[in-house]
Design goal:
The complex is a heterodimer of chains A (219) and B (233). Chain A is of the alpha/beta class and 219 residues long. Chain A is built from 5 helices and 15 strands. In chain A, a hairpin with a 3-residue loop joins strand 8 and strand 9. Chain B has 233 residues and is of the alpha/beta class. Chain B is globular and about 50 Å long. Classes of the chains: A alpha/beta (219), B alpha/beta (233). The interface between A and B is large, with 56 and 57 residues.
């Protein structure tokens, strides 16, 4: 069974360790915060100038001045702080943020990522993604393995305009967990009931599957 | 105390003329100088180049200036919330310079701090780097980016005093902070304008020297783009 978006987020939440500062992108990455165990001390950074992001506010307590990078109303936890955009990207460039989780349209086997533009069709802009991927030391991509047309998004080379080069470390899709290595996409885990063959068929880039590949544990 | 007060938004934007470059603070709709934007919409000034992280939504913020075709060129990092923007861009009516958000913020900060240019790794290997000088530092390629040169900066703060000192609230500090003083003239609109001495000098985010004109906005709608809540249970 392929994972749901929530299950992808749940699997990625296992990559979040105690003491980490984490930046979550828009979409599936935002959901990761819901699954990080409460006993871990983790602070979420939002690039618009928030550290120590909390859950959504209770109804009636929304504050137009407290939002996340997805423009959603949020809260701030005790110990949190607000700062300006230049300072925010300063802490990103200076690698103070330990883990960056973001979405993508394509990832290539050397770790290139494309996520911001489909020429002639869709241009939303790169937002903070180019700054994040150029500087972050640990980047995990959360995305679907194939696009709506059924074409692989896990590629030999990206076909869309790039967001960054040689930067992605790991990918979690509805089918698999893969690590980017000098030899290609190393298959680490497969979704429960999904075969290596199915993953290989959905992967255009070089997939390395050595020995028994364990199933993901999603509780 | 040097008094920076002007009467209202109309007086604050006087001098902004066709073809000028403006910086406008805010992230999404959070912390945008909405009174000044409304005054610009009424003024019919056109051919503006606007530097702003986003372009508002169709019927609020910079979207209003776009709708009236007062903007010739938009410099932003993310414009996904605005359908009219996308239409004007794809049809070629509007010039667009998409810039990585951290680079955009730093180009403002550099202007604010009197630094003409800087190197950043953001955008290396992408179309953002095309035609730009590349230099390696510590084995990593960086792109040369220049400070913005804007005629006016327009920022929004929570509280301000007659001297132009500003305090921001929550995540509305965003681009308002690095844009304050980055343009040749900076206009600040505030929710609450107080007498000098009422703000604690220890808590001032932007000192008044960066601000030339300040006024209390007549009305703040402070529209929420994505109202997300949880229920008590």
């Amino acid at each position: 069974m392929a994972l749901t978006k929530e299950q992808i987020a749940k699997r990625i939440s296992k990559e979040v360790k105690d003491g980490m500062y984490v930046n979550l992108g828009i979409g599936i990455p935002t959901l990761v915060a819901n699954y990080v165990p409460k006993n871990l001390n983790v602070e979420f950074q939002s690039e618009n100038g928030v550290l120590g992001m909390g859950p959504f506010p209770f109804e009636g307590e929304e504050d137009a001045d407290i939002i996340n990078a997805g423009k959603q109303t949020i809260t701030i936890l005790p110990g949190g702080s607000f700062f300006d955009s230049a300072f925010s990207f300063g802490m990103i460039r200076a690698q103070k943020v330990d883990l960056t989780i973001l979405g993508a349209m394509e990832v290539s086997e050397n770790g290139d990522i494309a996520s911001w533009k489909i020429p002639g069709k869709m241009v939303k802009g790169m937002g903070g993604a180019m700054d994040l991927v150029a500087s972050a030391k640990n980047i995990i991509v959360a995305m679907t393995h194939v696009n709506k047309a059924g074409e692989s998004k896990v590629l030999k080379e990206c076909s869309l305009p790039l967001t960054g080069v040689n930067c992605v470390k790991k990918i979690v899709t509805e089918l698999a967990v893969m690590e980017i290595t000098p030899d290609g996409f190393k298959l680490l885990e497969r979704a429960p009931g999904v075969s290596v063959e199915e993953i290989r068929n959905a992967t255009e880039g070089r997939l390395i599957a050595e020995g028994e590949i364990p199933e993901m544990v999603i509780d | 105390m040097i008094d920076k007060r002007v009467k209202n938004a109309q007086e604050a934007i006087s001098g902004i003329s066709n073809g000028m470059t403006l910086m406008l603070g805010g992230f999404g709709l959070c912390g945008i100088p909405e009174n000044s934007i409304n005054a610009l919409v009424e003024s019919d000034v056109k051919d503006l180049t606007c530097i702003s992280n986003n372009a508002g939504v169709d019927d609020f913020g910079l979207g209003l200036l776009l709708y009236k075709k007062q903007i010739k060129k938009m410099i932003a990092s993310y414009v996904g919330e605005n359908a009219e923007f996308e239409r004007q861009m794809l049809s070629g009516e509007l010039q667009v310079e998409l810039t990585p958000q951290g680079t955009l913020a730093e180009k403002c900060r550099a202007a604010q701090a009197g630094i003409p240019a800087f190197y950043t790794p953001a955008g290396y290997g992408t179309e953002v780097a095309e035609g730009k000088e590349i230099k390696e530092f510590n084995g990593k390629p960086h792109i040369l980016e220049y400070a913005y040169n804007a005629d006016y900066s327009i920022v929004k703060a929570w509280k301000g005093d007659y001297a132009g000192n500003l305090i921001f609230k929550g995540s509305a500090r965003n681009f308002n902070f690095p844009m304050a003083g980055a343009g040749k003239i900076t206009i600040a609109e505030v929710e609450e304008l107080v007498e000098p001495g009422k703000l604690d000098p220890n808590e001032i985010h932007i000192p008044g020297i960066m601000i030339q004109r300040i006024f209390q906005g007549e009305k703040f709608e402070k529209r929420i783009e994505q109202r997300t809540v949880r229920t008590k249970d």
